Amino acid sequence: MKASTPPVLLSVTSAESGYGASLRPDLVRIAQWVRPGSRVLDLGCGDGALLAYLQEHKQVVGAGVELNDQHVIASVRRGVNVIQQNLEEGLALFGNQQFDTVVLSQTLQSMHHTEHILREMARVARFGIVSFPNFGYWPHGWSILAGRMPVTGEMPYQWYDTPNIHLCTLRDFEILARALGLRITDLATFNGDREVSWLRGWRSTLAVYRFQSPHAL
User: Fold this and answer.
1) What is the pLDDT of residue 167?
2) Per-residue confidence (pLDDT) for residue 153, from 0 to 100
3) What is the number of helices (H) and of strands (E) in the chain?
4) pLDDT higher for 150 or 199?
5) What confidence score (pLDDT) does residue 168 get?
6) What 3-state DSSP class applies to 12?
């Protein structure tokens, strides 16, 4: 973990961004859950693809938080306002209910303090959206029975070099959400580029949840 440094806000105008890339199916689903013209915070925003899409197609007022230097540069080039900050240091920069929606896409499993980041998401926004690899995907069980940790498309790392430190199933997340007072409003699950609606807990490799904050007005 890098030493704490003052956050840096970087931005360019949308006219400079040249954004035109398509979104992954899970990000398309997330975008469908975001209200036009709303305020959006994207935690671990990566290359800024989601926020750039939301700004262009839904006219949101958005900001991203990202630590990786190359991702920050890519986001800026897409016209996304980015704060360079380590998420493990929390969201103290943001006020209570400052945003309508806060997104944490495919990052929850790599956070050291899972409960804390979920509580902070519920504090700064009315709605939260999280996605994570589904450890309950049925081939994972076969791998474990064979004596090996699973390696799949959503979890492509070996046990010794993985950034994924808190893996969970759909049921695990739902139990934690309930314990934190988060009301789940929507669920979408995917296997690669296909959305899964039957036996989600067994057949999906990626889960995307939308929840309402207990502090929402």
Assistant:
1) 79
2) 59
3) 8, 9
4) 199
5) 84
6) coil
Three-class secondary structure of residue 134 per DSSP: strand
151 or 189: whose pLDDT is higher? Answer: 189
Cα distances from 103 to residues 34, 53, 145, in angstroms, run: 10, 14, 35
Instruction: Write down the residue that tokens 């994924």 correspond to.
Output: 164
| DSSP at 201 | H
CB-count exposure of residue 43 (10 Å: 0-12, 13-18, 19+): buried
Span 103-114, average pLDDT:
87
Q: Which amino acid is located at 189 in the chain?
A: T
Of 24, 9, 116, nearest to 62 by C-alpha is: 9
Token couple for 129: 């959206």
What's the fold here for domain 8-137+168-212?
A: Rossmann fold (3.40.50)
Give the CA angle between residues 206, 211, 217 to the nearest 5°: 165
